[in-house]
Amino acid sequence: MVPVGVADLRRLAINTLDANWEHDHTVPSRTLYPHQWSWDSAFIAVGLAHIRPDRAWRELHTLFAAQWADGRVPHIVFNPGLRVGSYFPGPEFWDSAVADGAPAAATSGLIQPPVHAAAAWLVHRRAPSEASVQALRRLYPRLVAQQRYFTGRRDLGGGGLACIVHPWESGLDNSPAWDTPMAAVPADAAVMRAYRRHDTAHADAAHRPTDLDYARYIAIVASYREQRYADGRLARRHPFLVECPLVNAALGVAEHALARIAAVVGAEPGPHRDRAARITAALVDRLYDPVTGTFHPLDLRTGRLIPARTVLGLMPLILPDLPARQVRAVLAEACSPRFGLSARMDRPLPSHDRTAPDFEPLRYWRGPSWMNTNWLLWRGLRAHHRPDLAAGLRESMLELVARGGCHEYFHPDTGAGLGSPAFSWTASLLLDVLAEG
Question: 318-330: per-residue pLDDT in tens?
Answer without folding.
Answer: 999 999 999 999 9
